[in-house]
Amino acid sequence: MIKRSQICCLAILVTMGLQLAQAQYAEDALRYSQLGLGVGARELGMGNATVGGVNDYTALFWNPAGLALERDNEFSFGLSHLGYSNDVSYLGTKTTSDNNVLNLNNLGLVYAIPTIQGSLTFAFGFNRAANYTTTASMNAFNPSSSFSQSTNLLNQPLDNNIPYQLYLANIDTMTGKLVPIVNGNVQQTINILEGGGLNHWTFGGAMDIGPNLSVGVSLNFASGSYSYDQTVNENDIKNLYPASMHPNDFNQFIYENTIDDDINGFNALFGLMYRNPGKYSIGVAIRTATVYDISETYTESASSQFKTPDAITGQYSYSYPSTSNSIKYKVTTPYVLSGGITVQPLDWLLLAGDAEYTDWTQMEFNTNNAVLIEENSRIKNEMRATTNLRGGIEVSLFSLGLKLRGGIIDNPSPWKGDPSSRDQLYYTAGIGFTLDERTVLNAAYAYGTWKTLRTNYSYTVSGITYAVGTNETVTTSNLNLTLTYRF
């Protein structure tokens, strides 16, 4: 057994920097490029089919030209609750985990300037643009591999090599290569939690430029955070590593890593809307690319435990101290083009439909790091353009002061070759209640479902690399409440 050297600070900083560079993937760029279910309970109740007919504060998020329809000042306040459930199939075992979060959805003011003709309206406020809350849990017996064989762990220099430092890998004196001690037959418990979200601090305005024709713009200063926490616990529950000679008598391995991102960026949304009062309205909106500045801190720690003590030190267990480092990089998101139409065939009936086009191959990491530049090539080769479709209906019950709503949202997967089962599909329902002539309370619920894949780690045996992953079925429940007061 070759004696482990002490971890020097310089080696930690250098190798952690290399490991951090490998922690960013196309999936990270996609996370920051996708917005969530947006703002406003009325909008969500109608499946977010609102680009062609939005006429309240939430126009700042969907189509700012709709602000021109406001003739009164308005105060808007909204809350949203996300429930995220994930059924993970891993090595023939299914595990369910849940995560929930309550957020301020929107808070804003609309100020309509009195005009002799036409309209001139300004608005500003806060919008919750995206939510990163997810979860995944796995608990299964793995007969074939161990997380300590992970390519990302074993490829690190010895002074920062977790399996080597924890006596979970030895150096082959013939080849000089690291040889893992644990090669499967372990009970694996893996828990992953993600959190955070993206906020828009927004200001905008709209005006009529012709009879029933308006334009608008909103400026969005984005800020937010993202957190990732993964814990891996492996145990020899079947005693397949018998207590013979240390360290071949493996008992337990625990690994934890966290990622914390601070996010800042800016984009603008331009909108146009034409209205034929009482019949229909048509709108288009263009969201510019956003350049996000990401400041990331990556932390990892680990420990190992054996059944018998080391013959020299008498130790049963070893720990790899928590180490962390920070990096900065930029992500550029694609332009987003959306269009919609709202039709009113009857006084009490409103129909709406939207289409939203995004070319995901336009995402890009902006950095001097060669690893991330390679991810730009992967984005070009493996992603595609998609068109999100949204539809909604609103029925007014005038005698009761109620409005009933329903809708559907179909967001195709941005990955080439993905089956339709990986498209994000949402069914929505909502209700609006007029409390008095100036106050309206809207509520909406959205149920989402889709399938996805996850790669937990990869390892190499005899020159062949294997990926250890999961099949996952995600369901979400979104509840949104919005109070609007006009004055």
Descriptive account of the structure:
The protein is mainly beta and 487 residues long. It has a single domain, classed as Outer membrane protein transport protein (OMPP1/FadL/TodX) (Porin, Beta Barrel), CATH 2.40.160. The protein has seven helices and 20 strands. The chain has a 14-stranded antiparallel β-barrel. A two-stranded antiparallel sheet has the order 5-6. 39% of the residues are buried.
Global structural class: mainly beta
Residues in helices, as a percent range: 10-25%
Distance N to C terminus = 79 Å
Radius of gyration: 27 Å
Number of helices: 7
Percent of residues in β-strands: over 45%
Largest sheet report: 14 strands, antiparallel, barrel
The ordered H/E elements are HHHHEEEEHHEEEEEEEEEEEHEEEEE
- In CATH, the architecture is Beta Barrel
| Dominant shape | elongated
CATH superfamily, please? Outer membrane protein transport protein (OMPP1/FadL/TodX)
